[in-house]
Amino acid sequence: MPSTIEEQKKQLRRQVRGVLAGLTAGQAEESDRALFEKFLALPQVAAAGTVFAFWGIPGKEPDTARLVRELAARGKRVGLPRMLPGHQMEVRQYCPDRPMVQVAFGISEPGEDCPVIPKGEIDLILVPAVCYDRRGYRLGFGGGYYDRWLEKSGGFRVGLCRAAALQEKVPTEEHDSRVDLLLTETESLSF
Asked: Is residue 174 classed as helix, strand or coil in its secondary structure?
């Protein structure tokens, strides 16, 4: 067993990535369909004017590009993360008529020409993760961007987790926050 929480997190990231890499394209697509269907049916989504989502990293996260487009088609103002120096992050509005910008690690972001959305205007936050546990805690990708951003934000927090990646308990530290609702293909867990 690794001796520090950071070592435990690194080991769990490797294990979960291995499990997710074993999914076929069809399995991943079916998982996405079920997750997005459950997410779009939430009353919190219907009530939200502004949704802070994420543009999924191919092969590592659900393909949320489809979900982002659907939210925008439903008249939602959709924000996406834009990474800043010093492990900081801002939310920029998704503009369907403007191309996404490719940055490090396969991440796509809105460009600087897309408007910034202030934290206080965000009703619902779709929080990305390598995986979640049954308590609503997430294992992030290790950069701390979301931990810092979520620290001072309101909004209803939702996590999407493939059932194959759901853990009983992920290693946590004091700064780790959890979501209000976690969705898998077959479960909805409220906290």
From this structure: coil
pLDDT in tens, 127-168: 999 999 999 999 998 877 888 888 888 899 999 999 999 999
Which one, of 122, 124, 123, 131, lies nearest residue 160 by Cα? 131
Determine the 3-state secondary structure of 155 from DSSP.
coil
Question: Residues 8-46: pLDDT tens digits?
Answer: 999 999 999 999 999 999 999 999 999 999 999 999 999
Which two structure tokens, joined as six digits, stand for 61?
A: 């996260």
Per-residue model confidence (pLDDT) at position 2 = 59
DSSP of 49-112, one letter per residue? SEEE---PPTTTS--THHHHHHHHHTT-EEEEEEEEGGGEEEEEE--TTS--EE-GGG-EE--T
Per-residue CA distances from 175 to 70, 93, 184 (Å): 32, 27, 24
Token pair 């499990």 is at which residue? 19
Q: Which of 122, 60, 129 is nearest to 93 (CA)?
A: 122
Q: What are phi and psi of 52, to 5 degrees?
A: -95, 110
Alpha-carbon distances of 20 from 15, 34, 144, 149, rounded to whole Å: 9, 16, 22, 26
pTM: 0.92
Tokens, residue 81: 């993360």
From the CB of residue 147, how many other CB atoms can be counted at a distance below 10 Å? 15
